[in-house]
Structure formats: C-alpha cells, structure tokens
Amino acid sequence: MFWKKKKEENVVVDIYAPVTGNAVALTEVPDEAFAAGHMGRGVAIEPTEGKLIAPFDGTVAHIIKSKHAIMLEHPAGLQFLFHIGVNTVSLKGEGFISHVATGDTVKAGQVLIEFDIEKIKAAGYPVITPIIVTNADDVTSDLELITGPVEAGSTVILKAVIKS
Q1: Under CATH, domain 38-162 is a member of which superfamily?
Q2: In 142-157, which positions are buried (b, 16+ CB within 10 angstroms) versus exposed (e)?
Q3: pLDDT category of residue 8 using cuts at 50, 70 and 90
Q4: CA distance 96 to 91
Q5: Domain ranges (residues) in the chain
Q6: Contacts (Cβ under 8 Å, ≥6 apart) of 121
Q7: pLDDT at 1
Q8: Sheet containing 51-53: order of strands
C-alpha cells in the first residue's frame, strides 16, 4: 500500500492596524534603527487618534516603563513591538496612559495605551508609530506589508505566512 504524504499547509495570519492613521514604509520613520530595519521588519503608522489597541488576541510580553512602547505575542509565535513616536522615551511617561501590564492576556480591539498626540508633538517628537515583527525571519516565510489610510482594528496592515 502506498501512503501519500500530507501536503503542509501555509498558515496566513492577518494583523490589523493598532492605531488609526496613515500606514507608511518603515523607511519613512525618522530614526535609523527603525528605518534601516535593525529592529525588525514591519510598517509604521502616522496616527490621527491617540489610542493603541490590540490588533489580535494575544499576550503582553513586555511594556516599557515609560509606557511609550509595548511588546505583544501572537498565538502563532509572532512577536511585535509597537513603539509610539520617536525618542518618546524622553517624555518619561508624560502623555501616555497604559491600560495593561506585562503578562496580561488581551483581546483584539482592547485599548492598550492612550497617548496625547499634541503633547508629544509639542515636546518636539514625531508621533509616527513603528509596528515591528521582531522575529519575522524566524517565524515567517513571507511578510506582506500594506500602506495607506488605516482604521484601528479593521484594516489589515500586514499578512504573515507562518513557516510550517
């Protein structure tokens, strides 16, 4: 009897925008570490609304003490860094309100961090928000990034094909 090997299926994971605004290539971020891809692959959003929401059900892997950045883990193994603004660590948490803690389980659409766009801009910092898949090379075989106007929770900003 001959056995046919099962064909391995690619799993595609859609990641929705965590903020409302305009999605652009990472090269648009005025910070070399992000723009050159040193932090990982991804996309950036110029926000028009000061709320960062969970773009998927997952776990808070880490929240930065100054509340300007958070790392989330997707059940498929993808790890994301959401970094609100550039050099905003200098604000020491001013203008940021975190609604979650490290280790929390979050649901898609849940508010993670609220941030004051005008306060950030008044302090002289860009508000552009990089969304980085920190382990894309290890976990994905393909990563499609989408740019243009996005709405938090309803516009797909990236499609990841998970390695099987």
Answers
A1: Glucose Permease (Domain IIA) (2.70.70.10)
A2: ebebeeeebebbebeb
A3: low
A4: 9
A5: 38-162
A6: 127
A7: 45
A8: 51-53, 111-115, 96-98
Question: 38 catalytic, yes or no?
Answer: no
Q: Which of 38, 62, 74, 83 is catalytic?
A: 83
First to last CA, the chain: 27
Query: For residues 51 and 80, what is the distance between their CA atoms, to the nearest angstrom?
Result: 17
Sign of CA dihedral 115, 37, 45, 106: negative
Tokens of 56: 């998927």
Q: What's the whole-model pTM score?
A: 0.93
Give the CA diameter of the chain.
73
CB atoms within 10 A of CB 27: 10
**pLDDT value at residue 164:** 77
Token pair belonging to 139: 């976990």
